[in-house]
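[Structure tokenization] protein backbone as discrete codes

[Encoding] learned vocabulary of local backbone shapes

[Begin record] amino acids and matching fold tokens:

___
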Amino acid sequence: MKFFYPEDATPIDDISGLKPNWVRTQEELNQVEAENVSDAIDKYLIKAVKLPQSWFNVPTLNEIHRAMFFDVWDWAGKFRTAQTIPGLKPYQIPEALESLCRDVQFWCSKDSGMAPIEQAAQVHHRLVWIHPYPNGNGRFSRLVADRYLKAWKCKVPYWPTDLGENGQHRKDYIAALKKGDRGDYKPLVLYMMKCGAK
């Protein structure tokens, strides 16, 4: 069985953790993952969201990823053990996530000088950069960033539905993320605003 991924996506080389044994094609995998992610969106984004101080912590982040992919992959919500690009070394993941959680707690308790959309863009980028899980990090990071915005009663972006395919939307999105690698979050903020975030 061979799956195909767009440029700059993390490929799945090991499908031993795949739960639905009937999945044989990329289209079938996309379908079951989309259904699982949709259920997680209902759980974590449709209802009212409390301020990030109450939920932005490593156990809850793991729980969100687990909810997004548990029906499909047995590694859902578990940190990866192999190196990916992008992604920190596996042993760095727990401390990097804790550091992000501490930053979020600080932003929420002090006047950081950043608007919620700027904070959400940093949250999104840093989660992608850390790449905590074997796969699904982009979708996970977008859901968490959306949840962050909703917690502050901000309008969430309507992410293009074709981000998983090679095309201009993906190119612009990846370019914005790569600017974040150099500490420039403005392109990602602008991309999110172009998608409707406010």
Remarks:
- The chain has one domain: 26-194.
